[in-house]
Predict the structure.
Amino acid sequence: MKKFLTKLVAEIVSVGLVALLAYSVWKGVASLTAIAAAAYWIIIALSIFVGLIACIGIWAIEKELEVNSDPVKREKLIGSLEATFKKQGFLKKSVSWINLAIVVCLLAYSGWVFTAVTYVLIALLCKLVISVGREKFENLKQQIQV
């Protein structure tokens, strides 16, 4: 239930920010655009932090699994990564890409070009980190099963 509520709140905030940005662009309200842009800068900063944590986490767990031979601890460590590196479905992936395109277009159209470019670069970097982490996660799962 906690995971569901967390995802629900995150989706509501995400849709709310896109709606705020779209409304501010549609009506030409610069102050609302600035608020949305500031929120996206917070998302950019958090994405950098989370991306670094994910990289360090997968690296640390990979090193720990090389040293540790306890199967219970190995399974527990692998399980802790499962939520982060699980595969997305086609619909969720498509919505994510469409959302990225809408946000970048709206930010660029409203004059926040540097924010739009930074946002798309960080989003792509995070997608790369998750993809590499997913590959390593699958390799670790296969090592446990063998």
In short: The first helix runs from residue 2 to 27. The chain is about 90% helix and 0% strand. The chain has a mean pLDDT of 87. Residues 44 and 119 are 6 Å apart (CA to CA).
